[in-house]
Structure formats: C-alpha cells, structure tokens
Amino acid sequence: MPLLDIRDLTVTVKSDGTETTLVDGISYAIEPGETLALVGESGSGKSLSSLAVMGLLSSALSVTKGQILFQGRDLLGLSAEEIRKIRGRDISMVFQEPMTSLNPVRSIGSQIMESIEENLGLSRREARDRAIRLLTEVGVADADRRLKQYPHHFSGGMRQRVMIAIALAAEPKLIIADEPTTALDVTIQAQILDLMARVCRDHGTALVLITHNLGIVARYADRVNVMYGGRIVESGDARAIYAAPRHPYTEGLLQSVPRLDQDRSVPLRPIRGNPADPFTRISGCRFHPRCPYVAATCRSTVPAYENGVACHFPLDASRKEAV
Amino acid sequence: MFAYMLRRLVGAVLVMLAVSTLVFFMIRLVPGDPIAVMLADAGSEEAREAMIRRLGLDQPLIVQFGKWFWGMLHGDLGASIYGSNQPVSAILMEALPRTMSLAFLSFVIAMIIAVPAGIISATRKNTGADTAVSLFAFLGLSMPDFWLAIMLIIIFAANLQWLPAIGYEPLSAGFWPWLSHLILPSIAIGTGFSAIIARMIRSSMLEVLQADYMRTAASKGLTQRVMLLRHALPNALIPVVTVIGIAFALLISGAVVVENVFAIKGLGRVLIQGIQNRDYPVVQGAVLLVSAFFVLSNLAVDLLYAVIDPRIRYS
C-alpha cells in the first residue's frame, strides 16, 4: 500500500462568486521511504496540493473533489482534531522562507521542543536531549548553546537546517518540502538538499520535494511529477525523464536551466510566454499557447493522461528529429 | 543595557525638570491667588499684605522659582499654604499609594478584558463575537469614565449593595477592604483603556495570524490554544505595548476624575483641590510626581520590549 495516495484531487478558489480551479484532478502516490519531486512553475498548483494534504489550505480555498489517502485513511474525511494529530507526527513540512517561517520571539530550542513534546509526549528534559541530537544531526554545531538562541541569530541556511530539525522532530513518515532551497544562496542549496536526502534516507522518511528547478530533481528524487496549470503533465522515473522528456513542457523546463552534463555551447532556451494563469480559460491543452509543437488538436481537445504523459503528441526520438 | 538605562533616567529627570518649570509659571498665570481664596473679601488690606509676605509672594517670580527649585533639588517640596501647613511630600506620600493601587488595578482589569476580547474578535473575525467586541469597544470609548463611575455606584453600591460606594482602605487594613473599595473605580477607569487595547490586539493579531511562522506552528500539529497563546500573542503584543505606555497617561487622567467621584484622596484629588485653592506648592509637587510616574512607566514599557522581543537590544 502506498504511504500517500492522492486521487483526483481538485482544489478551487472562490472569489467574487466565481469558482476557479487551481488544482485540476491530480493523482499520484508515494511509497514509504521514496522521494518524489513535484516540479512546475509558480501557479502550477504544486504547493497547493501539498497544503491540501496537511489540511492547511487558507479559508478561501477548498478541496472540491478527490481523496487523499494516507496509509489507507482519507485525510479529507477527518475532523480538524484528527488531522491536527497527523500534522507533525505523521506528516511534516519544510517551507520555502526560512527567514519568516520561524517565530522571531521564541527560542530555537522551544520551537523544536514543542513539536517533540506535543507529538511524542516526551518530558521537557527528554525533548531537550532529542532537540540537541536533532540539531547536531542537521549540522548545527554547538547545539546545546544554540538552543537558547533566537532565529535572528541564525543565517538563512542555518534556519532551514532548524526547520528540517523541526520537521524531523517526531519521526514523521512523510516530509513535504516546499521549495526548501529557493530562498537560499546557490552555494547553500546543495548542502540543504544533500542534508534532506541524507536524513530522509537515515530515518526512512518519504519525501515530497516541491521545486521549480528540474535540474536538481534527477539527483535527489526517485520519481518526478511535472505539473502545469494545475495538472500533472508528465510523470515517471527521475533519470528517465531527465534523459528523455516526453512532454514538450518538460523538455522546455530542461532546456531552460543550465545542466552540468551538457556541452556549454548548447544555448539555454527559455520557454516562451508566461505560466498559465488559472483565471484565464484556455481551451484544449493548457500548454498549447506556449508549445513549440502545437497542432490543431491541441487547441481543441484536452489531452488524456496516458502512460505517464498528458500530450497528444508525446516527444520521442523520431519526432524530435522531424522538428 | 546599564548605559541605556542611565541615559534614559537622565532624560527622565530632564523631562521632569522641564515639566515642573512649566507648571510653576502656568499655575501663577491662572487668575486668582491663594490670598483671595483664603481671605475672600473678609480680610483687611494689612492682613492681605502680611500673608503675601509670609508666603513670599511679594518677591519677584524668578526669586520664588529659584527658592522652590533649590528646595526641590534638596528633596524639599515646600509645605501646603493651608491649614496645618503640611509638608507637600507628606501629602503626596499619603495620596500616592491610593492612585498607584487604582492605576494598577485599572490596568489589570483592562488587560483581563482586552486580551481575550482582542483574541476572540481576531480569531472569529466577522462573527457575532467579533461584532460584540467591537460594540463593547465602541461603548467603552464613548462612555465618559465619570459617568460610568456614577452608573457603577448606582447599580453595584446603591442598589445591589455589593461594594462600597466611596472611600479607600489601605492594604494594611486587609486585602478585601482594599480591593472592594477599588473595584468600581478601577472598572470605571479601565473600561475605556481596555477598549483601546482590545482593538489594537485585534488588528495586530489579524496580521500575525497570516505570518509564515503561524503556518509552521500549524504544521507541527499544535493545538489552536498553543498556537494562539504561545506563537501569535507574544508577536501581536509588541505593537500593543507601545500603546500601553502612552495610554498610561489615560489611566492617570482617568484617576483624577474618578477619584473625585469616589471620594478617594489620591493624587487626582490632591491635584484638583490644590488647583482650586491655588495651593502652589501642592500643585507643583503633584505635577512633578505625575510626570515622574509617566516618564518612568514609559521607560518600563521600553524595557519590557526587550523582554517580549529578543531582537531588541539596548545599547
């Protein structure tokens, strides 16, 4: 049984009486201990789908359809109190903004320890010992002393390490990391991702890694879901997708980021146009206005998701040569 | 920290000196003088002049000021020019605990009302509870405190007879006698104060609830109660503390009026009687004390900042 099994999840926002679909019937599953990447531009619905899992969607948003099965239990059917008990204990999150995600007026120690106390029911002293071990594990030196310090004593990278320690506090089965490195210096990004990969491996924790950078995915994820305009447009083994993307959008994403395994003479090719705006109705395939291979069918008919890709004309070697 | 406190204390002393200088001259600009109040039309010309000389009011203003200022620097605030010529410091020392008790209890009552009211109206925004708090705040701000004081006396003292209507008992006479005499005046003063604070907490709380760290707190599976009290409230109180410092002035001016309604011989009553009688030394001493109270409470608030917000360091 998959750890997390999302089926046909649909998230909508209501404003001025009209309902707009932001996440449009996505389905995916993640096995225990696995790392799954959700990749897409901002507004593709990747963060919303994970906030829906945590039951932390803001009040204007609602899940209108679908199921979120966690260990076989549908989280959408749980009461607020039941979902609260799952948060932190079974599923935890690492957020994008380490600078604002920690409470500025409370010490680092208290912010780690309260999760341990709440979710594992340990005493204050045991929680403190565990917090010190966790901080040391995520690479914060002199943890004993740093427990008493406040977030403003920590750099961005260090704060993200603290966030990871908080996420690990209660040994959850799943961590959702929402763009955990986007706000950090490039030199720190790899350190944080290496750290997340290591702790998830050591603790056997499954990881949903949300990112807009397809480049980092191949190295850290087992599988990838590429999202565009609230839908999953391609999914599959991370290496296979990296080597041979089948959706034109995936290809565009790969061509628009620098790759270390490529000849430097190959120019970067950004995807033309802007990310799909959920408030603008687009007929057919939502990617068609930006697609270099667009055909008449793409404008009229929504492509079905089959064999890991939602495209009328999935890319393959022969097709690439023709263009 | 120490250097900061020292600088602030020096500043406080300067403010108090400026205030006392101002008051010295302003009270003498008020029409009428103590002689007219004391002798009315009865006194003869000789009696008048004798009294003026006795009080030193025949000397130039600047000399009078110099004498008073010199005395003040040596801890001598002069004596009341009435009756038994009680020293001003003794009068103030008798009045101070009453006003302090009143201000303290008003503050406690105000916070007991304001904090839950602010939290409830922020977390249940646009519900019946929020509207009720807004209504309370509106009423609390619009009701003059002396009117509220009279209403409280009519209801709780005169009709229900739960609490004494007037007077004051020192704490040494027992906790309940002390408290029972202060409850009604404290409510009268604290209500308007709590209305302001409740509104402040509401708006500041609404902002804090949107913060990223609240989402983090939620992702840890904390209960609503813990999230509100441990994560949101300390952050929401930071801007509120500023207002509390400024609004302390409200408590004092509230005390001046309300002490009169409840016949409590506190600073307010001393001040008003002093002004009515043109009892210059008493007024000067009382104003000096009130300004000290105000300046020190603002200093306390600034120091309190560092306690609730670890990002603030004084140097």
UniProtKB/TrEMBL annotation, chain A:
Subcellular location: Cell inner membrane
Keyword Membrane (UniProt): yes
Family matches, as Gene3D superfamilies: P-loop containing nucleotide triphosphate hydrolases
Domain ABC transporter span(s) in chain numbering: 4-254
Entry superkingdom: Bacteria
Record-linked CDD domains: ABC_NikE_OppD_transporters (cd03257)
Chief localization: membrane
Alphabetical keyword list: ATP-binding, Cell inner membrane, Cell membrane, Membrane, Nucleotide-binding, Translocase, Transport
Membrane topology, record value: Peripheral membrane protein
Gene Ontology MF term list: ATP binding; ATP hydrolysis activity
InterPro entries: AAA+_ATPase, ABC_Ni/Peptide_Import, ABC_transporter-like_ATP-bd, ABC_transporter-like_CS, Oligopep_ABC_C, P-loop_NTPase
BP GO annotations: peptide transport; transmembrane transport
PANTHER family per UniProt: ATPASE AAA-TYPE CORE DOMAIN-CONTAINING PROTEIN, OLIGOPEPTIDE TRANSPORT ATP-BINDING PROTEIN APPD
Family indicated by similarity: Belongs to the ABC transporter superfamily.
Name recorded for this polypeptide: ABC transporter ATP-binding protein
Organism: Thetidibacter halocola
Automatic annotation (TrEMBL), chain B:
SUPFAM superfamilies referenced in this protein's UniProt entry, alphabetically: MetI-like
PROSITE patterns in the record: ABC_TM1 (PS50928)
Location in the cell: Cell membrane
Keyword tags: Cell membrane, Membrane, Transmembrane, Transmembrane helix, Transport
Membrane topology: Multi-pass membrane protein
GO cellular component: a single term: plasma membrane
Ranges that cross the membrane: 102-123, 135-158, 178-198, 236-258, 286-308
GO molecular function terms listed in the Swiss-Prot or TrEMBL record: dipeptide transmembrane transporter activity
Pfam family of the protein (one): BPD_transp_1
Similarity comment: Belongs to the binding-protein-dependent transport system permease family.
Name of the protein: ABC transporter permease
Source organism of the structure: Thetidibacter halocola
